[in-house]
Amino acid sequence: MPVTETPTALAFPRSFTWGTATAAYQIEGAATVDGRTPSIWDTYARTPGKVRNGDTGDIATDHYHRWREDVAIMADLGVGAYRFSLAWPRVQPTGRGPSVQKGLDFYRRLTDELLEKNIQPVATLYHWDLPQELEDAGGWPERATAERFAEYAALAAEALGDRVRTWITLNEPWCSAFLGYASGVHAPGRTDPVAALRAAHHLNLGHGKAVQALRAHLPADAQVSVTLNIHHVRPLSGEEGDVDAARRIDAIANRVFTGPMLQGEYPQDLLRDTASLTDWSFVKDGDTAEIRQPLDFLGVNYYTPTLVSGGASESSHGSDGHGNSAHSPWPGADDVAFHLPPGSTTAMGWAVDPSGLHDLLLRLKGDFPELPLMITENGAAFDDYVDPQGEVNDPDRIAYLQGHLAAVHRAIEAGVDVRGYFLWSLLDNFEWGYGYSKRFGAVYVDYPTGRRIPKASARWYGDVARTGVLPTSADVTNGDVTGDATSGDVTIG
């Protein structure tokens, strides 16, 4: 009988984009420099009890002053693209009126350096740092904020459109709306489920208006998208109550955005689920048509699956992986129970499950078959440390990345049009409500000195990015990572 050879490596398409990602408030620092004013995250982080250890992003990794060093690290690793976000209060400090040239000059210098190093810049307009003045005027629950966002998008495109060819409007609007305005574990820390639903709609509307503004000011070949943290929701069992619980979470986690953005309407089951809270009269005639704008791809952020069941006597949303609060981020789904999926976990307590990414990509192809996909964030936090030799060996992260990249490869082999992958994150950084206690970076940051130390995973990922080939096993300094990259099963030895 014929002998079947086990593949030694998995080759990705030659056109596949390999990148890494960051966000402005998490790395830039320079909170009051060159005209920047407070964002909602500045205010939230300075509020006692909101962020672990009282940490703030005032200095972060000081990327605002060390950007050239960080670009050099990316160039040395061999990544081909860098997804970063613009700080809205650095570009337009009050959220209204003209831009600040010193703020824009920072991004001009950054993008020029990236292009000089053959790294394609990918700009995200909004990664959660709403100017505080706009929050004081009502924030995302107010329709005017969507108008302001479109004006800001136009300013950014006018300034950087000659350098940046790929743009993302919003990063994870679910977090902005439901963690920011319902559970309160993110800025601005409000706990009003109706305000959260209003915020979700106005984030959708802001996205639609911003896409139109970008298209009006960018070259015809520019790529425009949005990034969603689409939850891969699984029912605990096949019982009717669990299946319906998964439907409800899918509606409030995913289809509240994909419905209007990609199909031009809010799902009817979502409206029914939340009818006791609101009649959705804040959705005006023409809104959904304006929200549904043609996109060049869909940005997908994935970390872990979501496992749910129905009939809970009290909410267990504290087990949903999104932080602890007495208030739920799931309007209309208070009796849904959340469960930790089986298997190993990261330092965030999130289950490691590459199959969730594979299944999610196949689902998106089925739902939106003509829309290309881009993995705009994927990665993991572990308890990294510098060893006596001055190195940071992180075999768990390598195993995580290898398993998830294998899952992406399997999806591509199954016909899913995945155009690229951005590792989260380039640097250890300010991890929102966790402060500096969680390390997602491929590069270790010693916060007192700002020193950067590429971890073993950075070197491993750089090899994959340069070659476009995923090995089935990888040796690292502090242990062997082995596994079958065709299945996504990886173990630590």
Automatic annotation (TrEMBL):
Q: Which UniProt keywords apply?
A: Carbohydrate metabolism, Cellulose degradation, Glycosidase, Hydrolase, Polysaccharide degradation
Which Gene3D superfamilies does this one have? Answer: Glycosidases
Which superkingdom?
Bacteria
Residue ranges of the region described as Disordered = 310-333
Q: What GO terms are given for molecular function?
A: beta-galactosidase activity
| Reactions it catalyzes | Hydrolysis of terminal, non-reducing beta-D-glucosyl residues with release of beta-D-glucose
In the record, the note on similarity to other proteins reads: Belongs to the glycosyl hydrolase 1 family.
Would you tell me the protein name for this molecule?
A: Beta-glucosidase
Q: Which organism is it from?
A: Streptomyces formicae
